[in-house]
Sequence to fold (316 residues):
Amino acid sequence: VVDTKFGNEAIGFETYLGRDALTKATETTTANLEEFGVYGYYTAGKTYTEAAPATANLMNNVKVTKSGDTWTYSPAKYWTNEVDKYTFFAYAPYSVGSDATAPVISYTVASALADQKDVIYSVNNRDVTKTSCKHADGTYVPFEFKHALSRIAVKAKAVMYDKNGAVATDQTTEFDHTFTITDITLQGDFATSGTMDLSAENPSWNSTLAAATYDMTATAGQALTGEYFNFSTDNYLMVLPTNFTSKAATLTVKYKITYAGATSDEITKTLPINTNFEQGKAYTINLTLQRNEDNAIIFNVSSVDGWNTENEITVS
Fold:
């Protein structure tokens, strides 16, 4: 009897997220990643490039889920021997995959930040063998995931500057009014939808641009202090990488000033963001609302009218 399953050892997986990132109220980490998709190729004695397989002949968008500390999928696939070659591409969340025969994922950025996702991918397992996948604690294919999107956050603070342009030493007594943020929006021609071919040497998005506006104000009505307040703590903007070739993105800030018991009308300022958002990078827009002593209400005497006439009064 010959055991053709080579010791009945199934192909197993492990995951590692190179750098943790935050999404809407959920931190995507190695520990809490619950599922991902896999495209698998068996190329025997050839490399993936040499074989140039047209279809995912081993695993075509198979969902892998976590059960305790183990990643499971069905039906199980088995190593043929110690030296035959395999190639695996993985991604998450599973909803961005497709049942196409090529390892291509697609994503459309949701308008609401709460509906956006943190898309991750792994392409670090080309031409692996059972021997190369042996580790001290077992034999498994290790997926090292990378972030596929750009993460954007907004922080804001209020600062009082003195006449010399330096931060005032006493922010409490000199900063006698309050800035209150009512709305922060980021707008521009963003890459709103796209596809990524995981089999490329350096996977990147093939995307289209469209006008988009994103509300960044998770905490409207926030009064600012001298320390940065993170409006994106549970509300990061996760967008496709975008190069602003024609015009920069803009940040529109709306706020009110409370002073001496009265509150001003809403004030609107629009600022350019001259930064391209690159794949796998996180960005924080630090916004400072400042008041200078040069704007203080001061007094001066311009003139004192002279006497028009001099009247003499004689008293006897």
